[in-house]
Specification:
It is a single chain. Helix content is 34%, strand content 20%. The chain has 18 helices and 17 strands.
Length: 579
Amino acid sequence: MHPHLAGTKPNSDTALFLLKHFTSLNLKTHTTSYKTLLSYPLHSSLSSHFKNGSFINLPLTEPSEPGSNMVHAYHAYSPSGSVYSKPVFVNYGRDKDYRALGSLGVNVKGCIVIVRKGGGLGRNTVVEKAEKNGAAAVLIYNDEVDTWRNGFERGHVMKGVGDPLSPGWGSVDGSERLSLDDNEVLERFPKIPSMPISVDVADAVLSSLGESMVPLEWRSTLKIKGITHVGPGPTMLNFTYLGENKLATIQNVFAVIKGSEEPDRHVLLGNHRDAWTYGAVDPSSGTAALLDLARRYSILLASGWKPRRTIVLCSWDAEEFGMIGSTEWVEQNLINLGSKAVAYLNVDCAVQGPGFFVGSTPQLDSLIHDVTKKVNDPDSEGVSVYETWAAADGGNNIQRLGRVDSDFAPFVQHAGVPSIDIYYGKDFPVYHTAFDSYNWMAEYGDPFFKRHVAATGIWGLLALRLADDPVLPFDYLSYANELRLYRDKLSSMLDHKISLHPLTTSIEEFASAAKEVDNELKELRLLETADQFVEMKRRAMNDRLMLAEKGFLDGDGLKGKQWFKHLFSVGNTTPAADS
């Protein structure tokens, strides 16, 4: 396993490996290439300077295998810059954290702020808030680690998703491309430099701070015990980052299994291929699952099986730079997706650790429950994934896909395609660091690789149901219940003088229609004959089920976020945009 960053030769080699694998299984394959704006580091340095005139150079690299060509730690799309200033610890960098500092008389203007990851903020939002509060630079560390204290969490700090030079349209050859100095492009990038630092580096800086004491409300959750003061200073930091944004070619790879009866209806399964480092977890655990699914489907094809609907296996590029590969493809194929896409099933990190997690658009909840009852749990003998999942703290909790942190985002937020995202393990401590390696996976993430087998089985069975069921296994009663839930949450947040009656009326009309459709579905599924009339009824019903999700799209997009068109999912979007 070697590092394979988007836009580099090792990642192109990985694309070729997938292409050859799919071809060796006699699957129809093709690729799509885009020239997009990516971002790479050229130089960085950080040093602490003390009152007595001494200084120390702080390490900004991790141990890696000789000749691995590991990219140095950096934040993609950070502007270049040099800052010599006092550091200030701002906790998670939330608005209330800056208010807490303000109440102590601490002003971060012109300072280098040190931020710990968390608090519900993505790194781009952290940098944006630091910039608004007058900071000159940002250094971010993840204190949720212990053994891997010298790891640096890479990532991007761009706002939004997709190629910034082609917002809203695919960056295919010959298409329009905005210039680098276009205001719409510049608004996507922060104005102050930032980069990740390790816990060890953060500890060295934070333990040297003086001035104001750490606010009481921060202290109970601090993992670095040496933090007693927030600064500014008296230590001075000298921070330099030099990077470049440049056009690079990225490549998506596809394998297509053509449907026998409804070839114009597509079930898509996707995983991104590019990685910041070795990427054993992120994304190669998902890539391994995709490769194995291709093998399993090829065995079925050899036995005479053909799916009713077309199955498309998708390997996306440049996800780590803001879901660029998937977004460009969705934008390029938006019209076809609008009429042909049954569902999109995403697996990014198939395995990060123990515990099954899943997110979906609500009409697919029942299908997820059915499928997980048929797959053996990888960590408990004699029970299904569903049973272990039900016994966990959150029960059979299905998250919603309001996040903008993986390749389901363009399918849900921009195209309105019913989607699912599945993975094992909520978090993992070596995320985006040089320690995300095969050795970590084999020792900590999935020692017997049974979770990989379970995740692949769930992913594959979901696709088979969606591709083969004569009537699509959608349940919009779940959607109606979810809409009611969010209506109630909204009501609790608003002044009682604001009436939600029009919203309630619309939801109840939707629920009534969902109930009628549910009754029709029960009748259709009981029909054993398959004459032309029945097939026409099934086709008409399936189109209604498939296209209903698009009814939640606003063609003009949200105000200030025109690319985001899904009214339900976007309202449920977290501030993070971290891939």
